[in-house]
Design goal:
Distance between the termini: 44 Å
Structural class: mainly beta
Pfam families: PLAT
Organism: Corythaixoides concolor
Strand content: 35-45%
InterPro entries: Inner_ear_hair_cell_LOXHD, PLAT/LH2_dom, PLAT/LH2_dom_sf
CATH topology of the largest domain: Lipoxygenase-1
Helix content: under 10%
CATH architecture of the largest domain: Sandwich
Largest sheet: 5 strands, antiparallel
Protein name: LOXH1 protein
Radius of gyration: 24 Å
Number of helices: 1
Number of strands: 11
CATH superfamily of the largest domain: PLAT/LH2 domain
Amino acid sequence: NAGTEADVYISVYGERGDTGSRQLLRSQKSKKFLKGQTDTFAVEAVHLGHLYKIVIGHNGLGSGNGWFLDKVVIKDPITDLDYTFLCHRWLDEGQDDGNIARELTVTDDSMFPGRQELELKREETWAAEKWKFQKGNTLQFYNRLTRGFICLSPDSRVNALGDKKSKYGKVFFMWMYA
């Protein structure tokens, strides 16, 4: 019951204005908004510039009107940019928080210059540091606020007393900022 038979509406907002509320009528699929299905719609509008949010929802009518929306991707045919709006929530009066409309902000690379470079650095750092988190290692985090150590033991115990001296001699230190 993650699909919907209700009428679905979207408003797209960009730096040059918005589309107003538009009903998503004709999917490239014969039946739209089915569970696990990706639907594609063409929405005609003036060029809005960089997009920053959408409002998407339904009218709550019809049997099985609740809907679980994973995400919306808008492809700008002029700039060839993809804008991703993550939802991963219910639009259902009887599920989640009961809302049948959601305001979603853009979460893609077009609004975060350098995001790909940051992700690559994160992956490189994890590849270099993940050995510290292997089974059997004890980790100590130094908390600059308390000026003490927090220890994570291999048996899943946490010593958060903030001891002022290292108990384990040579271990791996991680810095915590509070």
